[in-house]
């Protein structure tokens, strides 16, 4: 006898009270899901994803880049979720559609015959729906540990799967299965539309993705914000009291009532909170006239979404990206020799002052000449002064006379505004290969101490250095090494990388901004002489606060440190 024939011989209408022994079949469902997913991933989802995303004729060996593999992996995950939610929705509807409580909620608690909650039997087919859902989320726990890629949301996802299994099991044992099957169906319907929209997004079908998102929004409103509170919760809060035999179930009845109603109302609060996120996406969708973003991010939504940040990441599949920023550019008034600027400038040394102590140090140099500025279109520069000040957001370019090479003075770029991560490489390219082609580069950066969790000795706490290959091999006087095994990010790292590509000798010296006096002494006595540069510092500028020490005017753009 085949499996199909055997299933047809089972009396799915048979009724019995739920019992712990029913869960003996749960391991079969737990093994069923990874088996099905393995074959679908290997023989269906992989080929379907390549076909829809990259077009006909793309073989597995042709998917070479990490981005392509990531898109295929996300498509397969969404396809698997879609298959489960669709099958679970079909099973829930097929089991509940012909039941009287599908259209009349009072039958959650009464019938058939003289049965009254919690003394109600369950049909075998309803037990099957519960085992199907419990098996999926139990499998999801093990898949999260042994199968799927470990993500930053591992703890939240694990908590979600464990909580879902517990709720399914408890609602089964405490005979809330009729309500539970409807709640499962309400959630699965919305998730089907969401996963279809994500698959459409990955494959470039913008129209289908937009339509699926609209259906997702409508289903969320109708099922989770209207039907769930005004029918389901009303029944679990009021109708059940009318039918409960308070004398027979004076102890267990109230416990079941308050525990599960508390959980169901908590779920409603989450529905409303998540709706706020959906509403924001919907507004952006309308403002963009239905066009969806190409920004595809982490997908972690499951049957009942994890907390807001992860649900937000899923909704970000449907948001518009920020408009591209205008390109930064350099604006010169004269060249270092005072004549009309001729491009590119070829300074013997380019100093990039990013750290708080270095800004303070070069601020007190009186003989520097302002020759230009770096323009970031997104940064307002109205009211900036010629010289650096605490209120400035300028990125000015100065000329410093160099007796060693008078025909090729030293250039100083003083950054007093934060440079976002998305702008670092563009700015670095401007300073090293377009209008400025330096022979050597000195980058003075600082790091946020709070981002560093280790302990360093005093010499390490003062500064450490990274350099390009050309600088390390140069026969000229070089800056001594400072002990460290650390790496920084931000503009300093981007400049060092640009110099490495251009084969320019460059050194990145990183300091702790709050060690002001020590760092200033280090820069003057060790770092600048290594670059054949001596500074004559003016006095009378003591009122200029070292930015890294002042809490009210703190330097907000120190780089991050990794060790």
UniProtKB/TrEMBL annotation:
Transmembrane segments: 23-40, 78-97, 129-147, 154-174, 209-234, 255-277
Domain TLC residue range list: 73-287
InterPro entries, A to Z: TLC-dom
Main location class: membrane
Membrane topology: Multi-pass membrane protein
UniProt entry keywords in alphabetical sequence: Membrane, Transmembrane, Transmembrane helix
Record keyword Metal-binding present: no
Location relative to the cell: Membrane
Membrane recorded as keyword: yes
GO CC, any one term: membrane
A Pfam short name: TRAM_LAG1_CLN8
Protein name: TLC domain-containing protein
């Amino acid at each position: 006898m085949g499996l199909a024939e055997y299933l047809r011989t089972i009396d799915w209408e048979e009724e019995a009270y739920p019992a712990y022994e029913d869960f003996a079949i749960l391991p079969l469902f737990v093994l069923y899901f990874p088996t099905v997913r393995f074959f679908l991933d290997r023989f269906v989802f992989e080929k379907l994803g390549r076909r829809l995303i990259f077009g006909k004729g793309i073989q597995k060996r042709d998917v070479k880049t990490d981005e392509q593999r990531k898109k295929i992996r996300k498509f397969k995950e969404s396809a698997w979720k879609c298959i489960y939610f669709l099958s679970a929705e079909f099973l829930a509807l097929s089991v509940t559609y012909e039941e009287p409580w599908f259209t009349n909620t009072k039958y959650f608690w009464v019938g058939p015959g003289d049965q009254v909650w919690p003394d109600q039997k369950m049909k075998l087919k309803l037990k099957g729906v519960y085992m199907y859902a419990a098996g999926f989320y139990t499998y999801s726990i093990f898949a999260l540990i042994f199968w799927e890629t470990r993500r930053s949301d591992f703890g939240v996802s694990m908590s979600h799967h464990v909580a879902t299994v517990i709720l399914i099991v408890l609602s089964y044992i405490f005979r809330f299965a009729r309500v539970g099957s409807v709640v499962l169906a309400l959630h699965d319907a919305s998730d089907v539309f969401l996963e279809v929209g994500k698959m459409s997004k990955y494959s470039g079908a913008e129209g289908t993705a937009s339509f699926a998102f609209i259906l997702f929004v409508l289903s969320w409103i109708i099922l989770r914000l209207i039907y769930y509170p005004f029918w389901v919760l009303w029944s679990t809060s009021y109708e059940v009291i009318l039918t409960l035999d308070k004398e027979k179930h004076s102890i267990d009845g109230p416990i079941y009532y308050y525990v599960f109603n508390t959980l169901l109302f908590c779920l409603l609060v989450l529905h409303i909170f998540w709706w706020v996120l959906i509403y924001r996406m919907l507004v952006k969708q309308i403002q963009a006239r239905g066009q969806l973003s190409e920004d595809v991010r982490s997908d972690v939504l499951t049957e009942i979404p994890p907390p807001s940040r992860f649900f937000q990441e899923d909704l970000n599949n449907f948001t518009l990206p920020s408009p591209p920023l205008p390109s930064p550019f350099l604006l010169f008034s004269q060249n270092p020799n005072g004549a009309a600027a001729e491009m590119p400038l070829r300074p013997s040394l380019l100093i990039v002052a990013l750290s708080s102590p270095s800004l303070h140090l070069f601020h007190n140099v009186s003989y520097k000449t302002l020759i230009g500025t770096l323009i970031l279109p997104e940064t307002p520069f109205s009211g900036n002064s010629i010289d650096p000040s605490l209120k400035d957001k300028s990125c000015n370019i100065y000329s410093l006379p160099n007796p060693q090479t008078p025909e090729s003075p030293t250039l100083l770029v003083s950054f007093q505004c934060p440079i976002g991560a998305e702008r670092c490489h563009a700015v670095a390219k401007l300073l090293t290969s377009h209008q400025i082609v330096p022979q050597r580069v000195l980058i003075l950066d600082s790091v946020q101490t709070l981002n560093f969790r280790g302990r360093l000795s005093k010499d390490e706490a003062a500064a450490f250095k990274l350099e390009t290959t050309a600088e390390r091999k140069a026969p000229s006087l070089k800056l001594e090494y400072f002990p460290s095994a650390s790496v920084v990010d931000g503009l300093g790292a981007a400049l060092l990388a640009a110099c490495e590509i251009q084969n320019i000798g460059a050194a990145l010296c990183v300091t702790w901004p709050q060690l002001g006096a020590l760092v200033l002494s280090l820069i003057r006595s060790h770092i600048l002489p290594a670059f054949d540069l001596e500074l004559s510092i003016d006095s009378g500028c003591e009122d200029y606060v070292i930015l890294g020490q002042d809490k009210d005017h703190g330097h907000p753009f120190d780089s991050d440190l990794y060790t």
